Amino acid sequence: MKNSEQFIKCTEDDNLRRVIKFHEYFSRQYDLLERIEKGFLEINERERMGGLYPLLNSVMSGAISTDILVQKGLLTEAYITARAFLERITNLCYLLVCGETEYQDFIEYSQQKVVRSLISRQKAYSLIGHEIAIPKPPELHQKMKAMMKKFEKPSGKEKGSWTVLTIEKRMEYVGTTVSSFRTQGYLAIKEYLYADASESIHGTLYGAMFHTGILYGLKGDKAVGEKYLHGLRANLYMMLGLLIEALCKVVGDRLGGRNIGEEAEENFEVIGKALGMKKAQPNH
Question: Is 265 within the bounds of a domain?
Fold first, then answer.
């Protein structure tokens, strides 16, 4: 992965040096995603891995989006896209190893969302005085109605997910299937990102300000604030890279041969040695 923008320059500042090194790490991990992409594209789309290519593509676009936002200093937005990145990788890892019934539920949930989306658009137009008809392809109509019913609650409202398993339970399932998958590390990243990202999404005061450190009592001049932001930047790049490592381990387990997961681990070891680290440790 080429740097989308040279936002960091050579400096003796240790905090900024950490950002630089973890950005290098993230870039190397993204290169592995591009290799995984080639493998997915070589597989027939009727096979599960080939059929999941759109989800892999969304993982890759999420990585690029988060990188750009971090470089621009838009940390609250970066947390939001990082949360989406985590959820996409979680689903992709889980769907590569889960049973056929769960996989088909994922596909059918996505298919029935097409009709629900059209219904939402119909409602949107009606609010401004326009009525539109919803297309009903004859060959899909009855099947789609059954799918929609499948993903409804007893109250008639739509279910919020294609699976009853929480993110944590999906992670744990992957861990029981792929021996090299670091479940606890994955759960730690989820805990670190998820709540703050949710506050940003929901527009709370905390969500608008957590990245400044002010709510935690951080005081000082601009340099103090920059140091804190550099810590968040470094952590985001580290966590994105570790999430990619998790995916690499699952893909490597499915494909066999030279495990790309091992290469992903080695990438962290290289950066860790450069920074004098033994393990990945958040700054905050």
Answer: yes
Cα separation, 123 vs 131, in Å, equals 8
Whether 260 and 247 have beta carbons less than 8 Å apart is answered as no
State the amino acid at position 74 in one-letter form: L
Specify the pTM: 0.87
Q: Do you know the residue count of the chain?
A: 284
Residue 107 is assigned to a structural domain of this protein: no
Contact, 171 vs 87, CB < 8 A? no
Give residue 90's pLDDT band: very low, low, confident or very high (50, 70, 90): very high
Is position 231 within any domain?
yes
In a domain, 88, yes or no: yes
Paired strand residues for 158: 152
Cα(91)–Cα(133) distance, integer angstroms: 34
Strand partners, 65: none
Which tokens in the block code for residue 154?
């007893």
What CA–CA distance (Å, rounded) separates 154 from 81?
A: 33
pLDDT class of 161 with cuts at 50, 70, 90 = very high
Count of domains observed in the chain: 1
CA distance 210 to 197: 10
